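Priority: low. Protein: CE1759 family FMN reductase. Input follows.
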Amino acid sequence: MTTTHTTTPHSIVVISGGVSQPSSSRLLADRLAQKTLDLLRAHDVDAQVTTIELRTLVDEIGKATITGFVGDELRPAVDSLAAADAVITATPVYKAGVSGLFKAFVDLLDNDVLIAKPVAVTATAGSARHALVPDEQMRPLFAYMRALVIPTALFAAPEDWGDTALGARIERAATELAALMESGVARAITDGTWKRYQHTFGSSAQPAGAATEVSGVDFDSDLMRLATGGSARP
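Result:
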């Protein structure tokens, strides 16, 4: 395992779709995040966790869904995902599917925001009948967004919280997530292939130092700046 030491802590971003307080979805994500932090710090890798609580952004998510524009109050959440080294996703299950709030937020993300990022998928429900939701719905969703979804998906029904097997699965998932973060695979992939992906114009996913020229068009020219509502350079 290769450890990359940097002055900037690695960033783990949790997307929590839980709407109750406290939330079982948030609890499952927090347990995975903490275990991942413990494993990283055991290898002298500094890391920090940022949590996006979707229930506090419900109005902004609704407005963005209708208008097609991400507002100022929602922008920091999207930008934090673009800058993340790993993402933990957590949703309650309603009617055999991920929550509408969770899906609405993901629908607002540019298609290139999660390219090559390690992603963990987790879900909670009131019945074990929904246990396949992380693998059957969340895994394909983030595969479509070209993320690197870890092998172990997590699901917890009420009877699972007191079972040691849940703790074992959390540890396994954390090990996978930490290993991908330490390997630097996301940076290696994007550094070598970023120009070959299809990108959304104006996406916050543009990595530092990446070219702003696509298909021969310089989007950073004075003309393009004016055309997109900006101003020409002095």
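Residues 100 and 125 are 14 Å apart (CA to CA). The chain has eight helices and nine strands.
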